[in-house]
DNA sequence: CTGGGGACGGGGCCC
DNA sequence: GGGGCCCCGTCCCCA
C-alpha cells in the first residue's frame, strides 16, 4: 500500500526548527556522516523551539482533510492556552532539547505561526486533487497564464518546473535500491534511512531518556511523549495527544459522545 | 482502546 | 538545475 499523501501544503513558510534533534551516537555516523548530522547552520539560525506551543484542535480536522467543498480558510488550529507558565514549565524543560548545550531559555512564547497541515496530492493510483476552491482557481489561472506544465507520464500529476517533475518521477522509478533486501526508494536518503533498519544504527538520541532512534521523525514524535502539553488537542475535552492519529482515534471513538 | 515505536513517502527549501 | 536534507505526516504493529 503506497503511503503517499493526499494534500499539498500551503502554510506559512516559517519553519519550526527541529535540527536540534541531536545526533548523539556519533559512532554511527561514520557511514553517513553528512546525512545524519544536523547542520550547524540550522542551529545557529534557530529562534524557535520544538513545537510545544502548537496544539491542534481536532475540530478543525474535518475541514482540513475533506475535499474542497467543505474546506474553509478558518481552519487555523486552536493553540492551547500556554500562557500559564505552570503548564509550560515542565514541557518547556522537557522540550528544551533545542537548548541542549546552548541555553536554558524556555521555549519562548511560541512563534505563533498559524499552523495548517500540509495539503498534498496523491500521485499514485487514481489521483485525487484536494485543494480549496481558491487554490483551484488560482491553479487554473496559472496554467492558463502560459506557464508550462510538465506532466508525469506515470500519473496525472503535473508540475510547473522540469526539476520538480524529475523529482517526482523518481517516486515512480525508485532508483535507489537496498543491496541487502532489494527494496527500492525514490531518494538516496530514504535508502540510507532504510539501511539503518538493517544495521541497527540509531543516530538520533532523546536527550531526556537516552532512547535512540534511527529516524529523526520518530525522535520528534517520541519527544512529544515527554511533553506534558502535547501537540494535538481535542476541541471537546481539551485532552492533548502526541499524535494526530491518536487524536483522531480519540475523537472517532466518541469523545464526550460527540461525533466530529 | 490507547499510547508509542518503526518504517516510510513526498513536497519544499537550501546549497 | 540537481542533490541533500528537513519537516510533516501516515500506516502498521505491538505492549
From TrEMBL:
Pfam families in the record: zf-C2H2 (PF00096), zf-C2H2_4 (PF13894)
UniProt feature, compositional bias: Low complexity: 73-94
Cellular component, GO annotation: nucleus
Compartments, as annotated in UniProt: Nucleus
SUPFAM superfamilies registered for this protein in UniProt: beta-beta-alpha zinc fingers
SMART domains hit by this protein: ZnF_C2H2
Annotated segments matching region Disordered: 70-119
Keyword set, alphabetical order: DNA-binding, Metal-binding, Nucleus, Repeat, Zinc, Zinc-finger
Domain C2H2-type residues, every copy: 150-173, 176-203, 204-231, 232-250
Keyword Zinc-finger annotated: yes
Molecular function terms from GO: DNA-binding transcription factor activity, RNA polymerase II-specific; RNA polymerase II cis-regulatory region sequence-specific DNA binding; zinc ion binding
Main location: nucleus
Family listed: Belongs to the snail C2H2-type zinc-finger protein family.
The protein, known as: Snail family zinc finger 1a
Lineage, top ranks: Eukaryota, Metazoa, Chordata, Craniata, Vertebrata
